[in-house]
Design a protein that fits this description.
Number of helices: 21
Strand content: 15-25%
CATH superfamily of the largest domain: Aldehyde oxidase/xanthine dehydrogenase, molybdopterin binding domain
Structural class: alpha+beta
CATH architecture of the largest domain: 2-Layer Sandwich
Low-confidence stretches: none
Strand order of the largest sheet: 3-5-1-12-9-10-11
Distance between the termini: 68 Å
Helix content: 25-40%
Largest sheet: 7 strands, mixed
Mean pLDDT: 96
Shape: globular
CATH class of the largest domain: Alpha Beta
Bound molecules: dioxosulfidomolybdenum(VI) ion
Number of domains: 3
Number of strands: 29
Length: 788
């Protein structure tokens, strides 16, 4: 290979940018479908109520109506959505399409199909719901109160199971009894909305002639959606195809099949037609599952010279009205990752799941690790303050050193590689600048925090050990076409993160061909290798990329061997010359034999397709390699973030004036995409630090229903001084050395901002245990401390 076709590490502009910017995107609402009908959902306006009546007479009698499915019809046609990740002791209860009790405001109770979106909306309103109100249980306190009404019928309390991870009780007790200092706090992490640019949507087409259901959906995991659809609708897997078109962001919100999405598919099957539903922004705020939602009591024991003796936490998780397919998962990950990048004598955490009458919670970018980082870094910060030690010094003393890796945590995670201290000190150095003089009503502060990130969520045996009914492996199919062009098929999904480009870079590098010879085909269960977790858990690039490294190496070898046969020489004597700008049809892009003989790349592909040139009759024919990659273990990315904040003592408004992030995600395939991922993650994390909270009133009715009440960061909320640097410790578990970075940016901002605010106003530091740090909340703390 000539040096021109090196692609890994190049900041190639993502391919989808040009297409989307020019308006060639094909999102769910853009797809054309013949004779498509339109659906609207009938949703519960109450947080908790028995569904006594669902009168569809008026709706059915409207000439615009094609179909109405209420609880009775749905009960005949559908089964509840299966659960894949349960807590021990979790009640046998999963989310149904046919609900006889509404357990959250916005829960879909039925579906109406009509000839236009407006008609569908009208008819959904024409359905007369008869609801018998039950007492709402909107908060964890309500749910845990003595005599609280049970959310799950037939149970006596709102417990949704419990699990404990980490050191034995006696190790924790002994560490705390020996401690020179114990810091204990209660942390409240509110629910948040994912707020993707594109809400959810489904276009389901059922062909009664072939009995094939084709579902196009804004999904982060089409294979998982297909499996769940088969279970819910009682359909055969070979008759269901799920395709994700362009997806306008997900952040964990589109990984699971939702009841409303399944109802659209049930309606398409019932009608033998095409039915589309496009979610409204208000529905997305109230009916899409939310993230976070946790109240945690945590403590840190510190010994002589500031050594960490133990972390201990009791996490109370708001699972909402149903423990969805994987509802407790993020909270379990909080427990698993509380220890973070630190060496500590003992660490343990308990997760108690609790039902409330609110929309379920689930995956959100950072998946429990943002919560863990906030709790841990605030505790450490508080310990430093009480010890009178600089927080960076306290962290530095306790960070696991590179020579101590691999290191297995008390919860059984084995960190593979990294240099946590290097990242911390680099972030601290970047943030070390003189603070400008303050007017008397402004204070400023800086903090540096640290985390490791579980990435490449796998192997399958790990998921099996956790009792998660998903696979961890990831497959790719790599094909050289008859003209020498290349197609990659993968079950991971593009949700705006640029994965198509990164995978193309890996394939092009491995085959030694120009980047634009490679097309990446994602999102279709008919062609993509199976993938349950798909683009979740910072795993798409690492695992699909790792598989692709192997596949490309094999296919490159086969091409070379074929070329050698045609050139009548040994493979070792064949060289290749492909100009980085060459077209695949270029005769100059060729293999060269020892004696000046040559054969074009496309000619090798062409002859390969004829089945010519094989050394043995049993040698494979197709120029295609399928590789299923199940790594030996998890791989851990890590990072340190520094925030500089200014707080207005009069208004309580916190402004982030500078932000510096140092990440290690191993080998970066595309630094431009990596930068965008980290900046996007930081921005999202700043929203959770400062403004975002999904709220309900005392009746459990959502009050954050639009971007008026729910404020996400805008450009002016992101500091101009936002610096991202990368260090590179290659993963030893992943071919190519990649580590994940999709979630990394999101994990640390709340911890960084809260600790920086604590540095600015030490008088209120001990109260900075709840998010978001809104002006009213900060002002109240300032007042209580007698500062304003
Ligand atoms: S929160 Mo993600 O989709 O693992």
């Amino acid at each position: 290979m000539t040096g021109e076709n090196r692609h890994i590490g190049k900041p190639v502009p993502p391919r989808h940018h040009d297409r989307l910017v020019r308006g060639h995107g094909r999102f769910l609402a853009d797809l054309r479908a013949e004779g498509v009908l339109h659906a609207a959902l009938v949703r519960s306006p109450l947080a908790h109520a028995a569904v006594v009546g669902f009168d569809t007479t008026a709706a059915r009698n409207d000439p615009r109506c094609a179909l109405v499915l209420g609880p009775d019809e749905l009960a005949e046609r559908t089964a509840p959505i299966p659960t894949v990740w349960r807590l021990p002791g979790q009640p046998e209860d999963s989310i149904p399409l046919a609900a006889r009790t509404a357990r959250y405001a916005g829960q879909p109770l039925g579906i109406v199909v009509a000839d236009s979106p407006t008609a569908a909306e009208d008819l959904a309103e024409a359905v007369r719901l008869d609801l018998d109100p039950l007492p709402p249980v909107p908060t964890l306190a309500d749910a845990l109160a003595e005599g609280a009404p049970p959310v799950v019928p037939g149970t006596t309390d709102n417990a949704a199971g419990r699990i404990r991870f980490g050191s034995p009780e006696q190790d924790i007790a002994s560490a705390f009894s020996r401690a020179a200092l114990v810091v204990e706090r209660e942390f409240t992490l509110p629910r948040v909305n994912h707020a993707p640019l594109e809400p959810r949507g489904v276009l389901a087409e059922y062909d009664p002639g072939t009995a094939l259901l084709t579902v196009r959906a804004g999904s982060q995991s089409p294979h998982a959606m297909r499996q769940d659809l088969c279970a819910v609708l009682g359909l055969r897997a070979d008759r269901v195809r799920v395709i994700a078109p362009d997806v306008g962001g997900s952040f964990g919100s589109k990984v699971l099949l939702y009841p409303d999405e399944a109802m659209v598919c049930a309606a398409a099957v019932a009608l033998g037609a095409a039915v589309r539903w496009v979610e409204s922004r208000a529905e997305n705020f109230t009916g899409a599952y939310q993230g976070r939602g946790q109240r945690t009591t945590a403590r840190l024991a510190v010994g002589a010279e500031g050594r960490f003796l133990a972390f201990d936490a009791h996490i109370v998780a708001d699972l909402g009205a149903y423990a969805t397919q994987a509802g407790s998962g993020p909270h379990q990950v909080t427990a698993l990752t509380l220890q973070g990048p630190y060496r500590v004598g003992a660490a343990a955490a308990t997760v108690t799941g609790v039902y409330t009458t609110r929309v379920p919670t689930g995956a959100y970018r950072g998946y429990g690790m943002q919560e863990a980082a906030f709790i841990r870094e605030r505790l450490i910060d508080e310990a430093a303050r009480e010890l009178g030690m600089p927080p960076v010094e306290l962290r530095s003393r306790n960070l696991i050193r590179p020579d101590e890796l691999p290191h297995t945590t008390h919860t059984g995670l084995t960190y593979d590689s990294g240099d946590y201290g290097a990242a911390l000190h680099r972030a601290a150095a970047l943030a070390d600048r003189p603070l400008p003089p303050n007017p008397p009503w402004v204070r400023r502060g800086t903090a540096v925090v640290s985390a490791v990130e579980i990435s490449a969520f796998a192997p399958s045996a790990l998921l099996e050990a956790f009792g998660i009914e998903w696979s961890g492996w990831e497959g790719v199919r790599l094909r050289i076409n008859h003209d020498g062009t290349v197609t990659v098929y993968s079950g991971v999904i593009a949700v705006g993160q640029g994965i198509e480009t990164s995978l193309a870079q890996i394939a092009a590098e491995g085959l030694g061909v120009p980047l634009d010879w490679v097309r990446v085909e994602l999102g279709d269960t008919d062609t993509a290798p199976h993938s349950d977790l798909s683009a979740q858990a910072s795993r798409a690039l690492t695992l699909a990329g790792g598989a692709l490294v192997i596949a490309a190496r094999r296919l490159a070898d086969r091409m070379t061997t074929l070329a050698a046969t045609f050139l009548d020489t040994d493979p070792g004597r064949v060289t290749r010359q492909i100009d980085a700008t060459a077209d695949p049809s270029s005769p100059d892009a060729a293999f060269h034999g020892a004696d000046g003989a040559r054969i074009p790349w496309r000619e090798v592909a062409h002859r390969g397709y004829r089945g010519w040139g094989r050394r043995q009759r049993t040698d494979p024919v197709r120029l295609e390699e399928s590789v299923d990659f199940d790594p030996p273990q998890l791989t851990f990315a890590h990072g340190a973030h520094a925030a500089e904040v200014a707080v207005d003592l009069g208004t309580g408004r916190v402004t982030v004036t500078g932000y510096w992030a140092v990440h290690d995600s191993g080998v970066l395939v595309n630094p431009l995409i990596a930068h965008g991922q980290i900046v996007g993650g930081i921005t999202q994390g700043l929203g959770q630090a400062l403004t975002e909270e999904a709220r309900v009133d005392a009746e459990g009715t959502p009050v954050t229903r639009s971007f008026r009440e729910y404020t996400i960061p805008a450009a002016q909320d992101v500091p101009q001084d936002l610096v991202v640097e990368h260090t590179c410790t290659p993963s030893t578990a992943i071919p190519g050395g990649f580590k994940g970075l999709g979630e990394g940016g999101t994990i640390l901002p709340p911890a960084a901002v809260a600790c920086a605010l604590a540095a600015a106003v030490p008088e209120i530091a001990h109260t900075l245990t709840s998010l978001p740090l809104t002006p009213p909340r900060v002002r109240a703390a300032l007042r209580a401390a007698g500062i304003t």
